[in-house]
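Venom allergen/ancylostoma secreted protein-like 6
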Amino acid sequence: MDSAFQATVMTALMMLFCSVTATPVTSFSRCPDNSGLQDGDREDILLYYSTLRQRLSEGKISGLPKAKGMHSVEWDCKLERQAEAAVKGCPSAVSADQSHAHWFNFQPKQMSPPLTAYILDAEKYMPSNPAGGFYQENQTIRFNGKAEYRPFANAIRSKATRIGCSIDACLNDDIVGSYNISGICFFEEKEIEKGDKVYKVGDPCVKNSDCDENEVCTSYSLCYKSKLARKASHMHNELRSDLAMGKVENKNSKKFPKASFMFRLTYSDFLERTAYEQAELWDNSESGPLTSYRNQSDSNNYFWANRALVTQSYATDKEEALKWAINHWWDARKFVDDSDMDKLFIMDYFKNPVATFAEMARGNHYQMGCAVAEWNRKFNVVCAYAKRNRRPIKGFYDRGEPCAKCSATCDRAKGLC
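Tokens:
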């Protein structure tokens, strides 16, 4: 590597990080610490709803057709506080809230309090005949007004995208050592009424263009409304496409080899939340493996996080900060000369700053999620990536003609599996 070039870049990096004079002391929690739920419980509940809506979208809920443009749900701390008040004292029923739809479950005489939020799994407790509460009008599924189906209709209503839940466990006076457990989830939408639209019939999203503007198609085949997520997804996949097609140059203006196997990154709202937790710590950590995380799908997954602390000299809002960080990480390819480039295809692990480029370019990374925290006129940008197993794989992608090693479909115009 050219020592003068490296010194120039490292000086710029030092100026960027040394300009930070103070950082907030933060112990991250999605909602206030005095809440009855832990972040692990919230993650479980979001997983329940993502899985339910994904299965519905794919036509795997008995009697109901596939869903087009079904939305994911985000956590809302205000709704959680309302839910906490609603289940305090473990009521066996709750009154309808005119301003918010809800899903409620009461489990009496349980011999142990809940260790997880399992009683809020809407699919586990859905009606035995799920289709009995709906009818189809053209390409729209509507609620038929049957009261016993209203909670389930609330849970799968596509336009309901914000959720807040709580549970309470109370000792049962009738049976020593037993508990009554109440759980509720509130949605930002009003209670669904007879004739209201639940979702549109069609195929679930595969790519971002299958969703509306400023939405991204997530790893659960659900549409997630976020301008930042859409920008992050687009930039990453365009850069990876350029690399796969042999259009990216190293320090010496020599092109990197084409990639025979390069995943199109799907957006993960779980990884976005993981990135946000990391960004909110403001601990100035370097880019590197994530050694602490809650992986909800596959314990063999491996996570990496790229990090950048961006001052207002480089960005004035979150979108500008995100764009600057992604381009900054990708520009680390300029540290790679011809001999270094050969090493990239035999090494398991790369040191910073080259690692920020190499991990963005890893062919077997298949999911991503980004977040930007803002404080005191600075931006902390984190993008998290997942590859399919924790076993190190030699090199950062397979060389060859684009799409040659894709096991399923491939976008040949982009070179992405």
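The first strand starts at residue 67 and ends at 68.
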